[in-house]
Design brief:
single chain; alpha+beta; binds L-homoserine
């Protein structure tokens, strides 16, 4: 039996829509796999009642097919589905790493990324790698059509998850189809600033580079309380705030000594908007690991 813990992730980081992602130290999914004649899936943990156990419909079923690795799979969900924290990606990433080990497939972490992305496609319709890449490789990842580049980074963050649901499909429908040259130039500048910040593990540069004139404003409309929470986080010391993935979670980057205050301010501001929420005081961290 093999057990793997794969972390939650935050995709986009504002300026890197469908490209950037980071692994978070917590929350995480834990998966146990055991060889079997045919695949069966058992799910416990947060939001497990909403996740199908039929291998045809579950994100890990596609990973089993890709690796030709039938197994009995137990998934303990720590990452809430539809949270914007890469819930399906964490399960797909954990399954890819675990089944590769269970069946001695000998694939590298980089080779497992597109395999886990096929699992993502079952849920979102598209094989995005911007959540599975950081969940498998850790740190900050840049996922493009040419492959994935990963950078070790150590950045304190708060991920604040409100008790509202935003589906990835809905959040993709509001993304503008075109951008002006001015917006493009601003976005490229911010994405470059953010990347430099990750290489230096500099929260100030990362926070500045998270600004996004294009996708985030459209998606913020889907999240009750977004403006108030974002402003409260900044007043408490956040250096950048954005929608995490497709939402509804918000991601705030800060210095370590402000993290507790930022988390408290975000929770208070959501409460003022009548929304229950929970905040993870966490950091950019390593990827999936065998337990
Ligand atoms: N980049 C994706 C999005 C992440 O924002 O829609 C969620 O799958």
């Amino acid at each position: 039996m093999i057990t793997v813990r794969a972390p939650a992730t935050s995709a986009n980081l504002g300026s890197g829509f469908d490209v950037f992602g980071v692994a978070l130290d917590r929350p995480a999914d834990v998966i146990r796999v055991e060889r079997a004649e045919r695949t069966t899936i058992e799910i416990t943990g947060v939001g497990s009642q909403y996740i199908p156990t039929d291998p045809e419909k579950n994100t890990v079923g596609a990973v089993v097919d890709e690796l030709d690795a039938p197994a009995h799979i137990e998934i303990d969900k720590g990452v809430r589905p539809a949270s914007g924290l890469g819930s399906s990606a964490a399960s797909a990433a954990a399954a890819a790493v675990a089944l590769n080990e269970l069946y001695d497939r000998g694939l590298s972490r980089e080779e497992l990324v597109p395999i886990a992305a096929e699992g993502e496609a079952v849920v979102s319709g598209v094989a995005h790698a911007d959540n599975v890449a950081p969940s498998i490789l850790g740190g900050f990842t840049i996922a493009t059509a040419d492959g994935v580049h990963a950078v070790d980074a150590d950045i304190p963050v708060v991920a604040c998850l409100p008790e509202i649901a935003v589906s990835t499909r809905d959040a993709r429908e509001v993304v503008p189809e075109t951008a002006s040259m001015e917006q493009l130039v601003e976005t490229v500048g911010n994405a470059a600033t953010l990347t430099a910040g990750m290489y230096r593990s500099d929260p100030e540069l990362v926070g500045r580079g998270m600004a996004d004139p294009l996708v985030t404003p459209a998606r913020a409309e889907l999240i009750t309380g977004y403006e108030g929470v974002s402003q409260a986080a900044r007043e408490a010391g956040a250096l950048g705030v954005t929608v995490s993935g497709a939402g509804p979670s918000l991601l705030a980057v800060c210095h370590e000594h402000h993290r507790r205050d930022v988390a408290a301010a975000m929770l208070d501001a959501f409460a003022d908007a009548g929304v229950d929420a929970r905040a993870y005081q966490t950091r950019v961290s390593r990827g999936a690991r065998l337990l």
